[in-house]
Design goal:
Elements lengths: L1 H10 L1 H15 L18 E3 L17 E2 L15 E3 L4 E4 L2 E5 L1 E9 L2 E16 L4 E7 L6 E7 L7 E10 L17 E8 L8 E7 L10 E9 L2 E6 L2 E6 L9 E7 L12 H5 L6 E12 L1
Parallel strand pairs: 3-7
Antiparallel strand pairs: 1-17, 2-7, 4-5, 5-17, 6-7, 7-16, 8-13, 8-17, 9-10, 9-16, 10-11, 11-12, 13-14, 14-15
Amino acid sequence: MLCGVSVVVHRLRGTLTLLLFASTSVAHAQPFFAAGQDPKPEGKVWKSVESMSDEFSGAALDPSKWQTEPVGNGWTWIGRPPALFRPSNVTVRDGAMRVTGGRLEPPVARGGKPFTHQGAIVRSLSPGQVGWYFECRMKANKTVMSSTFWLMTKNRGRKKLELDIQECVGRTTNKTETWGQDWDQIFHSNAIHRTNRCNPQRVQLQARRKTETKNWERFYVYGAWWRSPDEIRFYLDGKYTYSIRPETEWDVPAHIQMAIETYDWNPIPEDGGLVEHGTREERTTQYDWVRTWKLE
């Protein structure tokens, strides 16, 4: 097929260009659902939310859609020690956004806490709404650090809600907490009503399913339909997998978050492990695309 394409390129370059653009448009006309899995109500169609969608086909991240600085626009989280969020760890190459972790040289202190390693966080500038569908095609890094795709509300006196569509790690060790030993081969989601001045009691609801392979072995498509304030439906590779029904109304606009971070329950090995000694590819989480949809 490649030989056939090259002949067409040589003879009908302009025509082929138009066809390729048309093919791309048709392929992205709706979310990534397996046959018979599209949950849209009768009489509705999916419409792309361009401000929260990206194919990462350029040479750099689109600053009109994404924020890589951890502090600003109402955000203050700089990373969980020992890994500091740094914008320089976010790159776009070969049609994917790449977020890389590693050792931090030299180590630094922030807020009285030591940071010896580094990751990054990418946030959408625009918030998502009730009724929308959020999805990404992601391949996890191979280290003890996380690979994530989630939503977060801003803390402005209202409910502070966190919706983890996918949260996993690339590797566990003998120092990993028992409950997290399988987090390197998992589709795992959270609905967390976080504490603030309006909510003194943290509430967390979880759901999970084992994936076919380790999360770093291949790309998976992780999706969530924020169906209503009372239900979020989760999809793995376009197939409905489970639902979470929050105990509080999930009705506050929320921003996409993609963080590569460290966890105290899955610590970096004393010898540094792959976080320090792995190849760049092994230390990198890849996002092939992120897409957001609303019903009309």
